[in-house]
Amino acid sequence: MTDTDRCPHCDTDLTGSPIPVEHRDSHYGGSTHYSRTVGIEVRGVYDGVLFWTCPDCGLAWHRWQPGSHIRDRAEPYVQQWNDDPPKHRHETPQADEPAAPRVTPPDPRHEEKP
Ligand SMILES: [Zn+2]
């Protein structure tokens, strides 16, 4: 669970699908929705989620509050991640090529028998 439901980089809404009511208290501490936030673990640094990343823009931000020693350890990893983030999921090809000429299919009616 995160303390934000919006990406601090691209401001996308990170609220996921609703959690089934019967699972909310037992598994999710009363949360009503899943989070789309992606937690990143770095083995050997912290046994658990070290920082969060966005599924849309791919950038990372801190899970831990300033002053936390875990944040200090996470800092270089967050920096490194944002220096070279994974390929954006929503990257789309540029539409700078001219549109292909419209092709009209041959008229099928000439095959009709009288
Ligand atoms: Zn984002």
- Beta-strand percentage? 15-25%
Task: State the major sheet.
Answer: 3 strands, antiparallel
Ligands bound to this protein structure: zinc ion
Uncertain stretches of 5 or more adjacent residues: none
Describe it for me?
The protein is of the alpha+beta class. It has two helices and five strands, in the order E-H-E-E-E-E-H. The chain has helices at about 20-30, 70-85, and strands at about 15-20, 35, 40, 45-55, 60. The strands form two sheets. A three-stranded antiparallel β-sheet has the order 3-4-5, with helices on one face. It has a two-stranded antiparallel sheet with strand order 1-2. A hairpin with a 6-residue loop joins strand 4 and strand 5 (about 60). It is elongated, with a radius of gyration of 24 Å. The N and C termini lie far apart (about 70 Å). Bound molecules: zinc ion. The site of zinc ion (ZN) has 8 residues, from loops. The site of zinc ion has 8 residues, from loops.
Key attributes of the depicted protein:
alpha+beta; two-stranded antiparallel ribbon; 2 helices; 5 strands; elongated
Element layout with pairings:
Blueprint: E1 15-18, H1 21-28, E2 33-35, E3 38-42, E4 46-53, E5 60-62, H2 69-83
Antiparallel strand pairs: 1-2, 3-4, 4-5
The protein binds zinc ion (ZN).
Would you summarize the structure shown here?
It is built from two helices and five strands, in the order βαββββα. It is α+β, with helices and mostly antiparallel strands and 114 residues long. The strands form two sheets. The chain has a three-stranded antiparallel sheet with strand order 3-4-5, covered by helices on one side. A two-stranded antiparallel sheet has the order 1-2.
